[in-house]
Amino acid sequence: MKSVAPIPGRPVRGSSTGRPIMAALDLFGRRGLLRILWELRGEAPLTFRALASAAELPPGTLNVRLKELKAAGLLVTEAGYGLTPMGRDLLAALEPLVLWSEAWAKAVPPADA
Amino acid sequence: MKSVAPIPGRPVRGSSTGRPIMAALDLFGRRGLLRILWELRGEAPLTFRALASAAELPPGTLNVRLKELKAAGLLVTEAGYGLTPMGRDLLAALEPLVLWSEAWAKAVPPADA
DNA sequence: CGTCATTGCTATGAAAAGTGTAGCGCCCAT
DNA sequence: ATGGGCGCTACACTTTTCATAGCAATGACG
Count of CB atoms within 10 A of residue B63's CB? Predict the structure, then answer.
């Protein structure tokens, strides 16, 4: 675990420009990260273990992601793990995506076994 | 490289429900995938090599992602690689995220060296 | 006090995914 | 036929992720 958390304004994995969208895309491309955000959508903070269980992530990975999210200013620890206002904004910005995924589900052939 | 592409309607990595949003979150969590989408935002299709260069991905990884995107019905190959209407919809759904990332960039402390 | 449950989190070893480079076979223009 | 671009594969290596075990701390209960 040695790569650093992507922060806008400086180089990130896969892009040397540091443009905000690049930092964001790098951040989101980390496994389970979006899922964690998603599971944190409720009002009440979650415990480490509850989060691990909800997001179906092993503790090691979860812990790395939590650090990245904290570094990105999207997460705080107070009576468990919860989102910052910025984190909540992100969640809101993700809303169209939820809609899209439903349309997608209808459009993609079941591709059954 | 053996995990299958996430398709809504059946179990994906990190979720056994197959709910659309879970399939989407799994898909997006794959390194470089969102970036590829992003680089494909122009009207003209890109060649494999142009895409590899733009997305800064090695050919092996790129090829895996392309297969996943095709399986998800978001990508087609015709005179290069381009997005399907569904893929374009996704890109549109990603738009708020671009806005968010800019606000984020302003809010996150430069965290300079 | 002991003990029991639950907490956040670290350790470990193995498997999977991603990286960077080289280069193949193909096609087309010269 | 030589040179260039193409899509893509092969290789050997590094990084990431996984699953499980388990530890130190905390708080309740008796």
Answer: 14
How many whole angstroms separate alpha carbon A64 and alpha carbon A58?
10
Whole-number distance in Å between B67 CA and C26 C1': 21
> Which domains does chain B possess?
31-104 (1.10.10.10)
The predicted structure's pLDDT at residue B108: 84
User: What is the average pLDDT score of chain B?
Assistant: 90
- For chain A positions 2-31, those within 8 Å of chain B (CB to CB) are 7-10, 14-15, 20-25, 28-31
> Nearest C-alpha of chain B: how many angstroms from A107?
8
The mean pLDDT of A80-104, rounded to a whole number, is: 97
The Å distance, CA of A64 to C1' of C2, is 36
Q: And the tokens for B69? A: 């995107």
